[in-house]
Amino acid sequence: xxxxxxxxxxxxxxxxxxxxxxxxxxxxxxxxxxxxxxxxxxxxxxxxxxxxxxxxxxxxxxxxxxxxxxxxxxxxxxxxxxxxxxxxxxxxxxxxxxxxxxxxxxxxxxxxxxxxxxxxxxxxxxxxxxxxxxxxxxxxxxxxxxxxxxxxxxxxxxxxxxxxxxxxxxxxxxxxxxxxxxxxxxxxxxxxxxxxx
Length: 197
Known about the structure:
The structure is a single chain. By secondary structure, this protein is an alpha+beta fold. The chain has 2 domains: 21-53; 57-196, Nucleoside Triphosphate Pyrophosphohydrolase. The protein is 20% helix and 41% strand. Strand 2 and strand 3 form a beta hairpin. Helix 2 crosses helix 3 (180-196). This is ADP-ribose pyrophosphatase. Residues 52-190 form the Nudix hydrolase domain. Pfam families: NUDIX (PF00293). It comes from Microbacterium paraoxydans.
């Protein structure tokens, strides 16, 4: 059964919805994020949902003058892979604006600064399991940061590659690159370039 066009907002967009929260319990307090269990009134009944309470994050699609994008590869324990990603990081400094966090993360993970910044795309990464919203910024006019950042743990052996945007898009569409943020970032960047041409 399909909805009539009159039932779909123009332009198409996600819609806020605030059910009555009957209880919200901290199930697990973690080092980076917590797990909560909420009981909410929904429709004629109640539902219970557990989810990861996340501080949010930023990612950077850094593109040079040759339309190459900066990708980093690092170990991610939950998936037991060293996956290719965009430079990214948590909004874990109180009061820090997303753009300031993006500038910080680009310097910390890639030792780069950018002269030009613009919002590219944003995404709830896993809305059925956490409340993380990640904002992806397009960074251009790149240059080397004045000082290199000390890296530890998974960041200590980050691998860096400059990849033609078309090659990154092909890697996503052919199923060779699986990182969700990388996927939406390179696809959004490719569309942005098409729109500008």
